Amino acid sequence: MAAKVITVTSGKGGVGKTTTVANLAAALAAEGQRVVCIDLDIGLRNLDVVLGLENRIVYDLVHVVEGSCRLRQAMIKDKRVPELYLIPAAQTRDKSAVTPEDMVRVCNELRADFDFVFLDCPAGIEAGFRNALAPSDMVLVVTNPEVAAVRDADRIIGLVEAEQKGPAQLILNRVRYAMVERGEMLSTEDVLDILAIDLIGVVPEDPAVITAGNLGSPASLDKELLVGQAYRDIAARLLGRDVPFMSLKPKTWYQKLGTFLNGGDTK
Amino acid sequence: MGRSGAGAVRAHVQEEDQFFRGARIILQVGKRELKAADLGRLRDKFGDLEITLAAVLSEARLTQQAAKALGLKTQLAKTPAHVAAAAVAKLEPGLTMAALMQQTLRSGRTINHAGHVVVIGDVNPGAEILAGGSVVVWGRLYGVVHAGAAGDAEAMVCALDLSPQQLRIGKLITTSPVRRGQPEPEMAHIRDGQIVAERWVPKDKFKRLT
Description:
Radius of gyration of chain A: 18 Å
CATH architecture of the largest domain in chain B: 3 Solenoid
Number of strands of chain A: 8
Number of helices of chain B: 6
Number of helices of chain A: 11
Order of helices and strands of chain B: HHEHEHHEEEEEEEEEEEH
Largest interface: A-B, 13 and 13 residues
Oligomer: heterodimer
């Protein structure tokens, strides 16, 4: 069994790469998959916070590549789901502390024992992006329905194609149904029209994601949340299941009443 | 091809880095037997230098099969004699050379060419075409385009959807007006010291209109 190495990237910062990695990794681990996430944002690490593993860091990725610890020593095990591990980034160094060859080596070492390796790519197209792309088997590009984010996603997709790591697949994050309806936000179709790559997921905007991130508990583990379902659907698609795209249209109070009377959840 | 052979090709290509970038290469390897793995490695190395390995020509069956397995061409399309002759002869009067790009240009991609440029595909926002001559885009032109970059005021820009971020011809610059309604094929050129974009109208239809 060989792991699939998935690079999650975006070009632009703040579109939700780290949140996406945390949620997909947690969702897959909850399905019984063996998952490792590696934070490549050396100097500006975040994934440990979003996963709630911040205070358990002893060794990090830079220690691993410099040989000052074994790979297993740097892997922090999550307690909520069976097989979820984090290799955190170093906070005191910069991107030059790791090379693309180091990343290929680390990922190859992980391949035998895991099902998925997620690489949380830093923003930008410099060294950190090169590190995250080198060992990649699959690239997920995260973008928001905003012109600036789509522009950067387009650039990233071009660079991924040039490195022959394509075709990348798209996650459209933080979609606001009401704004799209009013024509104030780019629709999924608008974004796909420019980027012309396959869509693997659409995630609605939900303040619960911010709360979950602050609490260090990925939203995808919360069965009540629509946004959690969106992440679980993407995870299922990564497992090769054919999951239809859910409607982001909020339920009317009448529909909610119906579900309530039937004993279902009303979110 | 042995290691040394591949190395020599690569060294030569690396030396002429800028010239070969974006090029398509056809390898002629004679009777040498190459496995798919060898060809794959070579293709990846060329890929690193932004060069496409288009075809492998060989008399060895093993090599041909390996190339086919990788989706590479093993023979070139036959060019009709009169076209082949014309390719080496001088261009007929009224003809000038153009470069063809058969790919969508994503943000950050720049094309520089001294002659005309033809793109089959879209030119996305953030992509750039700088051409000495005219630019034709069979697709949507949303990026930046400079036709007649060396000062040729006769240069034109045509596109199926002409909505560039910025359009330059010769020394003039303009931006696209906000589009109303469906995009239509348009061509932009300089008239009376201004860049104007006109809907493309077939000649006879034009006559009927006037």
